[in-house]
Structure formats: C-alpha cells, structure tokens
Sequence to fold (182 residues):
Amino acid sequence: MARKEMITRDNILDAAFSMASEQGIDEVTARKLAAYAGCSTQPIFRHFENMDECLSEVFKKTLAYFDDFYLKYDKLSKYPFVNLGMAYIAFAGKEPFLFSYLFMRNNNMGLNLYNLLNGRTGAVMDEMNRARANGVAAPEEIFMKMWMLIHGAACMVITGDYDLSSAQTRLQLEEAYKAFVR
Fold:
C-alpha cells in the first residue's frame, strides 16, 4: 500500500505565501521554507521543479490575494480611481511585504503596473470607463497622474512616513482627481 502524502503542493504554497507575507519574499528559500513548513526540502522539489516555479506560484497567489482585497474593500468615493487607490494604499499598510513583492519589484510574469492592478477584476478598465462616462476625454492620462500620487502615498505608508487618516486620504485623492480633470 502506498504511503499517504503528508506535505502537499498546497501546503508548501501556503507556507511560502505566509513566509512572504511575514518576512518578505527574499526570505523564501528552499531550506527556510522547509523549516517553516515542518518538512525537508524533498517535498518542495517533488511538487515544484525548482524554487523559481514555487515563487511564480506565490506571485500568482499574492496577486489573487490583492484582487480579493480590492473587491472586499469599501468603495466610499464616487470619483474614478479613488476607491482603487484607497485599496492600494490600505494594502500597503496591511501587507507591506506582499505590496513590495507585487508593486515594487520586477516580476517574472511580464506584467506591468496596469496589468497587475487590472488583475482578474478589471478594476482599472472599470475606473477608466467610469471616468469616460463622466466626460473625461483621456482617462489614461488621469490614471497616470492619479497613480503617481497613489503609489507615492503607498510607498510612504511602507516607510512609516504617512500619517493621514483614511478620510483625509480619500479627500486628498478626490481633490486631486477634480484638479486633474479640469
């Protein structure tokens, strides 16, 4: 009778994702992951061809986690790009290591910022369509202007240099949007 598999691919992926969230993706090495998961490196390499494959799966899981975070985030603003920006900034505060992994590093998936943000939710396209419906002729330009401000705020959250409340942040983003569309 075959021995029952104790450490599954999902166990390893979940452990790697947890490590990335708690310690940063650079800490997810085969030996450290094995120790974290409570196994040897053998199950890791039984389920993944190499660590690059494992880390690619962690990246996909992290991106799906951000998408879910955005979908669940309260949408309190009527202005395009503001709710997505609020979720992005909040994600930086809640998950600084995962935020850095997704949005502050080159990825091996060939995804640019637009693709990362648009994700499986279509969030950026939805926001551009909302802006266009509100009479904005070039929503792509407004997105870029807004995103420079939003990404800067999120980076400031990570470095501890951001002290605006959520309400203050939303007001700032709404004011910026109105100024950009004039």
